[in-house]
Each structure stands twice: as structure tokens, then as C-alpha cells.
């Protein structure tokens, strides 16, 4: 009898999986297969004549030689932004979890609040803030922190600032979730056992918040590496990221190369993430 | 964000995190890597004519009048679906006066969509249907010369009945009557033309009179923007390096690219932009830029410091054309609309609002009634003499054009 029950339970499980499974097959698996096959189109083809799949890897070779600069730049910008997010986000999440008291919910709302406005509009408003004739640049020039003809907008600094700003909540929220879960008595026990606050933090709080830190860095780094809006709106010709390249290739009709770059980006990120997660020893998170 | 419970007992941190993140990702479209992938996935889906078929490559998409015949239902259906660029039709509040007059005059119900934001983008949107001879649910669309040429070449457009458009036959300006890609204007009717030149903000900088200056003058360093429209920008570079933009060799193309590469490497160019160059020009982040004439006239109403100059190298002349795609079911209605916009009074009312070059003879006389100040404006009613120093980018087949676009994108940094 328990056998039938189990079997029925199993069946229900599959039925429940069906809608989402069908959805993902239609809108993720099929496009992914098409994407990969497009990346192997023979570049000799054209729209008029059609493309043939000849199993060549010429598309990969040519995009890697043409766009390795933008590739490395994307990874560099994403890593920098992620690091800054950790430096800004950890203290913030810590303060919300342990020190905010009755302000906690308000502060959480404040972290989320920017999402009530469109991503594009938020990034566009950075154009106004960092504008050459704006007060930020004027102030920095007055303080001689920025040269007379220096600028912020259309520089790498602006791009990384934009990415950091846009992805900060993705760092703060998982960090907060794991910090908030820590039993305060563990920290008390640390000081009862004569550990300095720093030692307590290093040996108790930090390891316990590690899952949040890992999740936060992934949620920040992965979308940041593929982002193209910040580079487009806040960057210049020499700060273009791999997302911009893919978008331009797609726009210009070079679908096979755009596909090859997309597949490469995906593969590189999967490899980086796997290596990182393995290293962090938290496989159960992924 | 949904209200968070104070004591989320039983939930693991990961559960809550997943929920929070799911909410966040859902709340910010176009934002996450996942939706980025989804977007490129959609693109890929569009590429293959139906999922797995693409695994074996794609069919050719060439059509002809024989392979793809269209039926005209205009007699029984008094309607028309019209796709145009934003800000390309006279507006009054939320209404389109000339278009409304057309509707009441003819009884044809026009659905007007401003869903053309870029030639390439629009092409990507419709290429799958048109390539397979399927309707795109549009009867009339407006695309720039080179894209129109590409569609003529692909056989994706219906042939127009010139007899049904007497105003067009009578009033189309001489200079636009026979482009090399459609010598008898059998597939296209110009909507508006425009010039690409230089604009600068005279509040912050002195006159910029040539492209050479734009790309080299020290005081403009990092304050110059160029258009990411390959044909326009490279036409100037080709002229600068001594080639003819409408007929150049591979070597000449290479030289022009190299010149472009130099300018990018020197840090002179701040950005390559689409329509979005007007705001930085207006507020001084960009001091001088490559610009479209109509945009600048419109900008000058608000900011008299903005100046448009005819560069010493000349200007690019382009047109946007009304086209009827295959399988559009209301061709005769579309022809009525095209003919209507070639009545000089209507053309003048349109030109007074959009400020681009009016392709209709007699509109300048009619303009006296509409807006006296625009009569004689060389950017709206240029004389043959004004147009003598203009050039257009070579029209080529799709494959060559793709190669140019790719080279251009590589050099401009993306």
C-alpha cells in the first residue's frame, strides 16, 4: 500500500513539474539549441542564400581574436564591481541585521526601493549626476580631485560605478538573509570565551555568513559580466563590454558571430562559477 | 516588495533568498543575465524558422513576384496599418492632424504605429516572416535607402501602381526620382529626406567647420560624438581619405577604417550614438557631433546656441522611404495615403513639424500659409545647388553590407 502511495506521489511530482518544464523547454532549451547551432553556421552563407551548418569553429576563432579585449574588460569590470559591492554591501547588511533595531524593515525597503523605478531610468539619471557640467564634477574640480578638463561621465569609473549601483541590492539581500539567521548567542559566546570582537567576527560571523557572500557575489558577478546598458549609457568607445559587442553584431546581422560570442560568454561564466563555488566549498548552494 | 514576515520560522535562508531574488529579477526586466539570455534566446529562436529546423541551417530567403503573391483586400476593408519612426508625423497633443484629415477624407481607418526604431532592428523583427512569404501585419513601413534597397533586392516588397498615385508622379522632386536601387520608383516612395552634417554648441565652443577638425581639434578631445549609423559616418571618413563614398575599393575602405581607428584610439571621440546625441549636445557634455539636420532644427527651438554646419567635406543625403511589404492586404489604401502626402499643402504641414527635407515640389509655396519662417530654409527646401555637394553611401548586397558593419563595429570598439 505504501508502495502505491509513493508511486502516486511520484506521479504528482512529475505532473507538477510539467507546466514549468514545458515552459523552459519551449523558451530556454529550444532557443539554446538554436543559439548553439547558429554559432556553427558556415560564415560563407548569407541571408539571401541561407546558412549551412558545416561544423566549423571559424566563428569562434574570429570573435575571440577580434573581441578578446572586450571580453577581458567585461570580466574585469564585473569583478571590480563585485568587489566594491562586497565592501559596501557587507557593512550595510551587517548593520541592518544586527544594529538597525526597529529601523530594520525601513532600511530593507530602502535597499529595494530603487527597483520601483526602471533600470534604464536609474542608469540614465547617473548621466545627469556625472555630467561634465554637473555639480559633482564641479565640486571635485574645486577640490582639485579632478583635473580642469577631467570628467567622470564616459569613463571606466562611471561604468563600474553604474554596475556597482545597479547590482548592490543583489549583494545586500543574500548577505542580510544569512547574517540575520545567525544566533546572537553564538556571538555572545565568543566574547564570553575572551575572543576579541574581531576574532569573533572572523571565526563566527564571517564563516556563518559565507553562503550569503557566495550567493551575493554570484548574483552580482554573473549579470554584471553580461551587462551592456551601463557601458552603453555611461561609457565611451574604449569601455565597451562584451554585451555591447553581441548586441552590435546582432543588430548588424552577423548572427553566427553574435551566437558564438554568446555561447563563449556562457561557457566562460559557467566555468568560472563552478571553480569559485568549488573553492568556496558550498556546492549545496548551486 | 511583499511584506516580509518578522519571524520567518522554518524557512531556510536559501529559501528566502531565492524568493527575494526571484522577486527582484521579476521586477526589473531587461536587467538580469537571465533575461539577457532569454532575450538572445528569443533572437536565436527568430533566426531559425522554427526551433530545431535551424539545427540544419537556414533556407534562402529570396522572394520574387512569382514566388510570393499578395492579395489586395482594400476594396472591402477600409483600413491601413502604418509603421513609422517616432516623431516623424505632425503631432498636436496626442493627435496626428494630417493623418486624421486623411482618414476623414477617405474613410480609411489608419492604425499608426511608431515601432521603427532602427533599420537593423526592424529588419530583425520582420525578416523571418518576409523571408518565408508570410504577412507581417503591416501595410506600409518607412525605412532608409540602404535598407529599402536590401528589401528590394530580397524581393520582399510589392510593386506599386504609379497610376494610382498622380500626385507622386507629378510632385516628387527631381533629385529623388531614380535612385540606383529603384530606378523607376516602382517599390518605394520617399517619406522625408535628410542631411547628415555637424552640429556644435556655440555656448561652449567655437565653430567646427569640418570633419577633420571634429576628429583632431585638441579642445574637443573627449567631447565629440559620432553616429553609429555606419553608412553616414563612414561616408565622411571615406571622403576625408580621398575616396568616393558611393563607389570605393577595398583598399580605400581599409584606409578609411584605419583613419577611424586612429580617431578612436586618440580618445577624441566620446561616444557613438543613435538618436540620443541631442541631450548631451544640449547640456554641453558633447561640444560638437555628427548630426541629422531635422533633429538640430528641432533642438534649435529650445536652445538657440546649437548650430548646424555644412562640413567642408560635404554632407550625407539620405531618404526614408514608404514601402509596401509582401502579403500586405491593403496596398491600394497605402497608395492612397502615399498620394495624399504628396499634396503640397499636406506635405508643407508635415514638413513644418518634422523639419526634414520635404521631397514634394510645390510644398515650399504652400509653406507660406503654414509657417512663413521656414520658407527658404535650406535644410528643409534645399536647392539643387545645395544638394550638389552631398553624397550617399554605396548600396551593396546584404553580405557585403554585413562585412562593412562588422568592420565598423570592430573599429568603434564594439
TrEMBL record, chain A:
<dbReference type="InterPro" id="IPR000515">
    <property type="entry name" value="MetI-like"/>
</dbReference>
<dbReference type="GO" id="GO:0005886">
    <property type="term" value="C:plasma membrane"/>
</dbReference>
<keyword id="KW-0812">Transmembrane</keyword>
<protein>
    <submittedName>
        <fullName>ABC transporter permease</fullName>
    </submittedName>
</protein>
<dbReference type="GO" id="GO:0055085">
    <property type="term" value="P:transmembrane transport"/>
</dbReference>
<keyword id="KW-0813">Transport</keyword>
<comment type="similarity">
    <text>Belongs to the binding-protein-dependent transport system permease family. CysTW subfamily.</text>
</comment>
<dbReference type="Pfam" id="PF00528">
    <property type="entry name" value="BPD_transp_1"/>
</dbReference>
<dbReference type="InterPro" id="IPR035906">
    <property type="entry name" value="MetI-like_sf"/>
</dbReference>
<feature type="transmembrane region" description="Helical">
    <location>
        <begin position="75"/>
        <end position="94"/>
    </location>
</feature>
<feature type="transmembrane region" description="Helical">
    <location>
        <begin position="258"/>
        <end position="277"/>
    </location>
</feature>
<feature type="transmembrane region" description="Helical">
    <location>
        <begin position="106"/>
        <end position="130"/>
    </location>
</feature>
<feature type="transmembrane region" description="Helical">
    <location>
        <begin position="204"/>
        <end position="225"/>
    </location>
</feature>
<feature type="domain" description="ABC transmembrane type-1">
    <location>
        <begin position="71"/>
        <end position="276"/>
    </location>
</feature>
<keyword id="KW-1133">Transmembrane helix</keyword>
<feature type="transmembrane region" description="Helical">
    <location>
        <begin position="150"/>
        <end position="176"/>
    </location>
</feature>
<keyword id="KW-1003">Cell membrane</keyword>
<feature type="transmembrane region" description="Helical">
    <location>
        <begin position="12"/>
        <end position="33"/>
    </location>
</feature>
<keyword id="KW-0472">Membrane</keyword>
TrEMBL record, chain B:
<keyword id="KW-0574">Periplasm</keyword>
<dbReference type="GO" id="GO:0015846">
    <property type="term" value="P:polyamine transport"/>
</dbReference>
<keyword id="KW-0813">Transport</keyword>
<dbReference type="InterPro" id="IPR001188">
    <property type="entry name" value="Sperm_putr-bd"/>
</dbReference>
<protein>
    <submittedName>
        <fullName>Spermidine/putrescine ABC transporter substrate-binding protein</fullName>
    </submittedName>
</protein>
<keyword id="KW-0732">Signal</keyword>
<dbReference type="InterPro" id="IPR006059">
    <property type="entry name" value="SBP"/>
</dbReference>
<dbReference type="GO" id="GO:0042597">
    <property type="term" value="C:periplasmic space"/>
</dbReference>
<dbReference type="Pfam" id="PF13416">
    <property type="entry name" value="SBP_bac_8"/>
</dbReference>
<dbReference type="GO" id="GO:0019808">
    <property type="term" value="F:polyamine binding"/>
</dbReference>
<dbReference type="InterPro" id="IPR006311">
    <property type="entry name" value="TAT_signal"/>
</dbReference>
Amino acid at each position: 500500500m505504501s508502495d502505491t502511495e509513493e508511486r502516486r506521489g511520484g506521479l504528482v511530482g512529475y505532473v507538477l513539474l510539467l507546466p514549468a518544464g514545458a515552459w523552459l523547454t519551449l523558451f530556454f532549451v529550444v532557443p539554446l539549441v538554436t543559439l548553439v547551432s547558429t554559432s556553427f553556421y558556415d560564415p560563407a552563407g548569407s541571408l539571401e542564400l541561407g546558412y549551412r551548418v558545416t561544423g566549423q569553429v571559424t566563428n569562434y576563432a574570429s570573435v575571440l581574436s577580434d573581441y578578446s579585449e572586450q571580453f577581458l574588460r567585461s570580466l574585469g569590470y564585473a569583478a571590480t564591481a563585485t568587489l566594491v559591492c562586497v565592501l559596501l554591501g557587507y557593512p550595510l547588511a551587517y548593520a541592518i541585521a544586527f544594529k538597525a533595531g526597529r529601523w530594520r524593515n525601513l532600511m530593507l525597503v530602502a535597499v529595494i526601493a530603487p527597483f520601483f523605478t526602471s533600470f534604464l531610468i536609474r542608469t540614465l539619471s547617473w548621466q545627469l549626476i556625472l555630467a561634465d557640467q554637473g555639480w559633482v564634477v564641479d565640486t571635485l574640480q574645486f577640490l582639485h580631485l579632478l583635473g580642469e578638463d577631467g570628467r567622470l561621465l564616459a569613463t571606466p569609473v562611471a561604468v563600474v560605478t553604474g554596475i556597482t549601483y545597479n547590482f548592490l541590492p543583489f549583494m545586500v539581500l543574500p548577505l542580510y538573509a544569512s547574517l540575520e539567521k545567525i544566533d546572537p548567542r553564538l556571538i555572545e559566546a565568543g566574547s564570553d570565551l575572551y575572543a576579541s570582537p574581531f576574532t569573533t567576527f572572523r571565526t563566527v560571523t564571517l564563516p556563518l555568513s559565507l553562503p550569503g557572500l557566495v550567493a551575493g557575489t554570484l548574483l552580482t558577478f554573473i549579470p554584471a559580466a553580461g551587462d551592456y546598458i551601463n557601458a552603453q549609457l555611461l561609457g565611451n568607445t574604449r569601455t565597451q563590454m562584451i554585451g555591447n559587442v553581441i548586441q552590435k553584431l546582432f543588430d548588424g546581422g552577423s548572427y553566427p558571430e553574435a551566437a558564438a560570442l554568446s555561447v563563449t560568454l556562457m561557457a566562460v561564466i559557467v566555468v568560472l562559477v563552478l571553480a569559485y563555488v568549488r573553492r568556496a566549498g558550498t556546492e549545496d548552494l548551486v | 516588495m511583499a511584506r516580509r514576515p518578522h519571524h520567518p520560522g522554518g524557512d531556510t535562508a536559501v529559501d528566502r533568498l531565492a524568493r527575494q531574488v526571484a522577486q527582484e529579477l521579476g521586477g526589473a526586466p531587461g536587467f538580469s543575465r537571465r533575461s539577457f539570455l532569454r532575450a538572445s534566446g528569443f533572437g536565436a529562436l527568430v533566426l531559425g524558422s522554427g526551433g530545431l529546423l535551424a539545427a540544419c541551417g537556414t533556407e534562402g530567403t529570396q522572394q520574387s513576384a512569382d514566388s510570393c503573391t499578395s492579395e489586395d483586400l482594400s476594396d472591402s476593408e477600409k483600413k491601413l496599418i502604418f509603421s513609422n519612426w517616432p516623431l516623424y508625423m505632425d503631432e498636436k497633443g496626442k493627435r496626428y492632424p494630417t493623418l486624421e484629415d486623411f482618414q476623414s477624407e477617405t474613410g480609411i481607418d489608419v492604425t499608426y504605429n511608431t515601432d521603427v526604431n532602427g533599420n537593423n532592428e526592424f529588419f530583425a523583427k520582420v525578416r523571418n516572416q518576409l523571408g518565408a512569404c508570410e504577412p507581417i501585419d503591416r501595410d506600409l513601413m518607412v525605412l532608409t535607402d540602404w535598407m529599402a534597397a536590401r528589401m528590394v533586392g530580397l524581393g520582399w516588397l510589392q510593386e506599386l501602381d504609379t497610376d494610382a498615385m498622380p500626385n507622386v508622379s507629378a510632385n516628387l522632386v527631381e533629385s529623388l526620382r531614380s535612385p540606383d536601387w529603384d530606378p523607376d520608383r516602382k517599390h518605394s516612395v520617399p517619406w522625408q529626406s535628410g542631411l547628415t552634417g555637424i552640429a556644435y554648441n556655440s555656448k561652449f565652443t567655437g565653430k567646427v567647420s569640418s570633419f577633420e577638425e571634429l576628429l583632431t581639434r585638441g579642445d574637443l578631445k573627449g567631447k565629440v560624438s559620432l553616429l553609429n549609423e555606419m553608412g553616414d559616418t563612414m561616408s565622411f571618413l571615406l571622403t576625408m581619405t580621398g575616396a568616393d563614398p558611393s563607389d570605393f575599393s577595398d583598399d580605400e575602405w581599409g584606409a578609411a577604417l584605419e583613419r577611424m581607428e586612429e580617431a578612436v584610439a586618440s580618445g577624441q571621440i566620446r561616444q557613438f550614438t543613435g538618436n540620443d546625441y541631442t541631450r548631451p549636445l544640449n547640456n554641453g557634455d558633447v561640444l560638437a557631433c555628427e548630426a541629422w539636420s531635422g533633429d538640430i532644427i528641432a533642438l534649435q527651438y529650445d536652445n538657440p546656441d546649437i548650430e548646424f554646419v555644412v562640413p567642408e567635406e560635404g554632407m550625407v543625403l539620405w531618404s526614408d522611404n514608404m514601402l509596401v511589404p509582401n502579403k500586405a492586404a491593403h496596398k491600394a489604401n497605402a497608395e492612397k495615403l502615399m498620394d495624399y502626402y504628396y499634396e503640397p499643402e499636406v506635405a508643407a504641414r508635415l514638413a513644418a513639424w518634422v523639419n526634414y527635407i520635404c521631397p514634394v515640389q510645390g510644398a515650399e509655396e504652400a509653406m507660406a500659409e503654414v509657417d512663413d519662417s521656414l520658407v527658404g530654409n535650406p535644410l528643409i527646401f534645399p536647392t539643387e545647388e545645395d544638394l550638389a555637394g552631398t553624397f550617399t553611401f554605396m548600396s551593396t548586397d546584404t553580405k557585403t553590407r554585413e562585412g562593412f558593419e562588422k568592420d565598423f563595429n570592430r573599429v568603434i570598439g564594439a
